[in-house]
Task: inverse folding
């Protein structure tokens, strides 16, 4: 590793990426997922850093295109730092590969949600753009994810995601250290359900705004690990399949997005 131009948080720089630096990254909240993607889906994967627990690897897709598997950490403040630094090292397409809780009856644990846009209730995003600025995914990345899900035969749902700052309070969980929720949060899940919002997670909205403002293409696919119309709990038995499907779809989409024109 050269390391002279290493970015402070991600722990690597352009000079660590070789002669053909990746312009696309798969970004997981969980470093274990980033490592799993590198080990199972990338060819010739090489670990770049584990700075602050944020695993980053570089490898190639089956079509030979270079790609990063990186970690955002949980929540928009951490994601905003990692994404800012990924853009500084030359990344121009970022697909978030996450986990999420369904708020619609028809979206079961084990399925995946592809976010076309987000209701962005995230403080970090206010430092990126005005609150009214759209949190929309890149249409080409979103279509690539949908086509990948169809081709893989994976049960998927596409639509609007609620991106919030907290897992417990902001997602209206009362089974936590503080069962008392602020009045403005009581009933919010039902309100979102009636607005046809599909799911809760904690990063996509800020990622989408950053993409539109900083000039990179952003998308998001999440494996569904909770069904909030039934319970607040994570359905642990469906987590592995949900993540496996989200990864498979993200990798297929990345292949399509990096294919050289015929
Ligand atoms: O599994 P990841 O990608 O971390 O995504 C989801 O999981 C975390 C909460 O459990 C939040 O980061 C949320 O967005
Ligand atoms: O319910 C859930 C599950 C995963 N991630 C979230 O943010 N919420």
Result:
């Amino acid at each position: 590793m050269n390391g002279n131009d290493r970015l402070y948080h991600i722990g690597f720089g352009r000079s660590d990426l070789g002669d053909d630096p990746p312009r696309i990254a798969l970004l997981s909240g969980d470093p274990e997922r980033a490592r799993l993607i590198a080990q199972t889906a990338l060819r010739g994967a090489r670990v770049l850093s584990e700075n602050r627990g944020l695993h980053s690897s570089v490898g190639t897709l089956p079509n030979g295109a270079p790609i990063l598997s990186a970690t955002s950490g949980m929540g928009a403040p951490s994601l905003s730092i990692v994404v800012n630094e990924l853009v500084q090292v030359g990344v121009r397409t970022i697909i978030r590969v996450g986990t999420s809780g369904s708020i619609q009856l028809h979206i079961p644990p084990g399925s995946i949600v592809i976010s076309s846009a987000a209701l962005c209730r995230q403080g970090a995003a206010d430092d990126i753009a005005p609150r009214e600025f759209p949190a929309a995914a890149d249409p080409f990345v979103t279509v690539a994810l949908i086509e990948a899900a169809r081709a893989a035969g994976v049960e998927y749902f596409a639509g609007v995601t609620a991106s919030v700052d907290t897992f417990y309070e902001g997602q209206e969980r009362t089974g936590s250290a503080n069962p008392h929720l602020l009045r403005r949060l009581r009933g919010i899940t039902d309100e979102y359900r009636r607005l046809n919002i599909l799911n809760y997670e904690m990063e996509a909205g800020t990622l989408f705004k950053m993409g539109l403002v900083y000039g990179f293409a952003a998308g998001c696919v999440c494996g569904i690990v909770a069904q909030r119309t039934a319970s607040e709990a994570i359905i642990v038995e469906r987590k592995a399949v949900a993540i496996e499907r989200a990864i498979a779809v993200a990798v297929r989409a990345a292949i399509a997005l990096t294919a050289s024109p015929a």
